Amino acid sequence: xxxxxxxxxxxxxxxxxxxxxxxxxxxxxxxxxxxxxxxxxxxxxxxxxxxxxxxxxxxxxxxxxxxxxxxxxxxxxxxxxxxxxxxxxxxxxxxxxxxxxxxxxxxxxxxxxxxxxxxxxxxxxxxxxxxxxxxxxxxxxxxxxxxxxxxxxxxxxxxxxxxxxxxxxxxxxxxxxxxxxxxxxxxxxxxxxxxxxxxxxxxxxxxxxxxxxxxxxxxxxxxxxxxx
Length: 228
Fold this sequence. Notes:
This protein is mostly helical and about 230 residues long. The chain has two domains: about 1-105, Rna Polymerase Sigma Factor, Chain: A, CATH 1.10.1740; about 110-228, no CATH class. About 70% of the residues lie in helices and about 0% in strands. The protein is built from ten helices and no strands. It has helices spanning about 5-15, 25-50, 50-65, 75-100, 115-135, 140-150, 155-165, 165-180, 190-210, 210-225. The longest helix has 26 residues, at about 25-50.
């Protein structure tokens, strides 16, 4: 049974049925989530391919959004997309582990603002390992398309602008990335400076909504890729 709000339920909450948070704050949280929900559900369904699982992910996204310190969130829509994608990918990853199949990279969950130093360090390590896998297995174009689409819910027309490719080719880059991540391909060497730069940009985008920085880093890598 879904526990995230519909518009009507959000209006009822604002009539005094919730003790905390404050009505205005709750109303803002509900409005932001309701506006973002159709896009979040679409993202979850694209990743999971199952409507029920997608609904479960959206419910968990709502619960996490309720528990987030929203005063420090610069881009609520970006945070909701990122949370949804990571939760959905975690579901996929868990299913693959249960089937004892080879694991492909997944994006760590959003940072807990109240997390312990140990939890922060663990998440940093998870991001570093995930980004390293993407750099070892994907070309810059594939990596850019995959991260922006699967990690942050970018539309294909925006990805095509960043890659300077057609929308059709942008979609192909994501498909090729997914194929590479699910296959046993030879890993390529990774420059440590480039790895660190992408990790920092990813964390800034995931935690603070600084997507412009992530776009710049990814685009600079694409510019260095030889044209084919």
